[in-house]
Amino acid sequence: MFRKMLAILILVSLAAMGFAGGGQEEAAPTVDASGNGGFDWRAYEGSTVVFNFPNHVHYNAMMDSGVIEEFEELTGITVETDMMQYLNMHDKQVLEMSKPTGDYDLISMVVMWKSEYAMADMIQPLQPFFDNPALAVPDYDFDDLVPGYVEVTGIAGGENIYRDGPGAQLFGLPFGSETSFLIYRKDLFDEYNVKVPETYDELTEAARFFAEEVPGVYGLTMRAASGHHATHGWLLHASPMGARVFDDNWEPAFTSPEAIETIEFMKTMIEYGPPGMEGFTQDEEFAAFLQGDAAIYLDASVFAARAKDPTVSEVHDKLGFALHPTAKTAGSETGGFGLAIPANAASPEAAFLLMQFLTMKETERKVILAGGAPFRMSAVNDAGLQAQYPEFAVLAEQLKYANPDWRPIIPEWGEINGPLLGTAINQALTGQKTPEQAMADIVEPVRQVMIRAGYIK
User: What does pTM read for this prediction?
Assistant: First the structure.
């Protein structure tokens, strides 16, 4: 089933991330509790599902929307929630999934963990659940899920390990997925007659202008703190600049001219960015834009919900949206979160019912209206939702260029991501080393990881 869907990957242009900024007057449809075409939602009444997920805008919208309570009423299943800061989730999930029976029945996983979990048999393939008529909701419409999000968040185990292909299986479903795009201060761009950047040269010039010519305003806000955040920031720009982590033979490629050029661009953005940006995590990156300190945001599209929220954003009514600028290519991010069922879950069947319920069309609309992001093509192409969320059109176009190979989601990525690559990038950004030296210094440590894992013979 999921292979049919992935065969139409080219149609990702029809879909996009979407975000809420109010406007909840449109009523969302309700799941039919009477049986949904004869389907028995109450087959696991009395069960308990323990659900681990991040403190994240999409999951906050899930909680605010009331869909968990609706699921409990529909099914008679109790849902216990465990919300955590997302960078703390990995170790806790691995601990629980290493037990004979873990505490978690359903988890949200960052896409960069999927291959690690799948290859270690810590999460369950989903096709057997979908093949079971007693568990699979008849009108779920799997093929309506955004194809690129399904591949990035849920497909693993084939010859390419983290991409679709021979031997690959479905291990997760998108829920909180994202690409990248640009949010800008439309009021400032209009007042100073600055062109909305379409290329990285134009982005650099716009950042310079605001930093040097407009009092109290800086250019681009960007994450760059040592570790995962620096790697994320580098990958965000490495993709359109043509840089890669590995070449086709799994040799480290981050000393290439394109890779060094990406770091040099980041150093320039730090020069034009808010003070201390070399230490920014995602939280500081967000805050600089929400407070009006930065004129430009270029990162995860899921941020649009917060940027438009008048309760947290001082610039909520001053925004414009545009595509991720191009350099050598037009590649943008693919990332975010997906849902998976641990192999040692105590209540896997009940967890699968919750997984389906959360990713159904009716539930998706409620989460969107509460501030979440869509993951189905039907939602982003819905005329009513497009009228409420004009950024859907930008994201529909952006997904044509979303790079499914944005980062190498191999099981060993955790060893490379923050401890090696993210540390080296930050050393270059803070001037501890030159970009060339910082990246050269980690070539051999990364090669040893790849040799030990069998990628390099």
Answer: 0.87
